[in-house]
Amino acid sequence: MKKLLLFITICCWLNNGIAQEVNFSEHIAPIIYNHCTTCHRPGEIAPFPLTNYEQVKAWAPMIAYVTGIKYMPPWKPDPNYQTYQRENYLTDAEIKQIADWVAQGTKRGNTALEPPLPVFPTGSQVGTPDLVLSFRESYLHKGTNQDVYRFFVLPTGLTEDKDLIALEVRPGNNAIVHHALVWEDTTGTSRAADEQTPEYGYETVRGNSLNALNSQLPGYVPGMRPMVFSHGIAQRLHAGADLRLQVHYAPTPVDERDSTTVNLFFARQPATRFLKSKVMIPFFGTLTNGPFVIPANQVREFHGTYQFTEDASLLNISPHMHKLGQRWEVFAIKPNKDTVKLIKINEWDFNWQGSYSFKKPIILPKGTVVHAFAKYDNTVNNPVNPNNPPKLITWGENTSDEMFYLPFSWVSYQPGDENLVFENPTTSTENPTIYSIQNELYPIAPNPATQQVKIGFTLASGGKATLHLFDVNGRLVNAVFTDRLYAPGLHTVEMDVSQQASGVYMAVLTIAGQQHIQKLVITK
């Protein structure tokens, strides 16, 4: 019996040992490609690429460390408090797998089991924009190792109102664009401010954002896919309006130039519901323990409230503070005293700010009160305190100032909002009032063609796609790619047709079992 027990014990130990062996191909590659490579690839904001085994292996100890302390990937909300669309954090099991992989010698494993690197979009993470607004000239960000907040005015040129379902900021220089905020300006105030400065754009003016609290549009932070409104929801963009773009440029020791663009996407059908918004700032009776003053060498927590005056379906929340900031906790208390958790950030990091959209609307009846608690550390114990020694700080837009700034957006409640789901951005063909960015194959160019053609397509959500070229008899003449993994967004591929006979062909893009077809004429 003792021998039998010993045999069983050894077998269990061996099996556990085998189960705990971790390799790149089967275990680590999916984690890296899904959570890291979006930023860690050429041309993006991360300082080094993570697109293959050799690159990941070279940084393996660092990856194990930063994931172990949950510094990377930079997802700040507490996942146990509330959930959001497009969450990007590692589970404890994934963190342990990375640590075990490094401890066991960073083995590669069977390369046949290694997933392909997704093909990432190059022009847009959303699709083909309806309107593209660009800087009229590049902006010179001087190498002074200082943060700079710069406003730029982009005239829309719209001659009629449009229903905006997505706004995408495309940084011209990922190395210095830290984040961007966008407002609609129908007053001409921003344009006038820009005209008063000889150089392009103008610097932050204290209190400037207070004039546009109810016209803020979606902004930009690195690594986050733009929000796309669906279910008939949109924001109204008015004829003749300007976009006021505030770009935060990170410190740099050398001169850098930036020319950012903004992609706008309009509803294909008239919107049925329009977004409403509120920005909680520490004025006008918002704070229960104001004023918003943080004396030197003190830690302070401020409590702000807002009461809904209608039944609301809450969609999004975006806490913001500066370098004294330590934590946020925001929750709502309904009239029946039920508490609804909205967001909790336990360790605020000025470098990683975000906008967080709920997977489903948060239903808040009329009379619900939102409670927001924000904590600040203005002592020498705060390693990123911009002042040494600390000094008294008040509200302001500069990095050396501080902010209690909490935007959130909602739509007026309608029966059935409890059943809406926003996580899947694809279009429902059964309900025409539910629309969003669709899987789409665009007309081929040039057409007719003799040599090279470009084929553009959009994926609403990531997945495998197949692009084949058929002749008029349905025969396959060119398997351009088959079951290639693509990330969401706009993609373009080139195809050589110089060896194809003259005639009419059909390009067929297959995504999620659905086919999208465009005609191609080849001439010689």
CATH class of the largest domain: Mainly Beta
Say what the CATH topology of the largest domain is.
Answer: Jelly Rolls
Number of domains: 4
Give helix % range: 10-25%
Inertia-based shape? globular
- Judging by the overall fold, what is the CATH architecture of the largest domain? Sandwich
What is the percentage of strand-forming residues? 35-45%
Structural class: mainly beta
Question: What's a quick, concise take on this entry?
Answer:
The chain contains six helices and 29 strands. It has 524 residues and is mainly β.
Secondary structure layout:
Layout: H1 2-20, H2 24-35, H3 53-58, H4 60-68, H5 92-103, E1 131-134, E2 139-141, E3 148-155, E4 162-170, E5 177-185, H6 189-195, E6 202-203, E7 216-220, E8 233-237, E9 242-249, E10 256-258, E11 261-266, E12 273-274, E13 276-280, E14 293-294, E15 298-307, E16 312-317, E17 325-333, E18 339-345, E19 356-364, E20 369-378, E21 393-394, E22 406-412, E23 440-441, E24 452-459, E25 463-471, E26 476-486, E27 489-496, E28 503-511, E29 514-522
Parallel strand pairs: 8-12
Antiparallel strand pairs: 1-11, 2-10, 3-6, 3-9, 4-8, 4-11, 5-7, 5-9, 13-22, 14-21, 15-20, 16-19, 16-22, 17-18, 17-20, 23-24, 24-27, 25-26, 25-28, 28-29
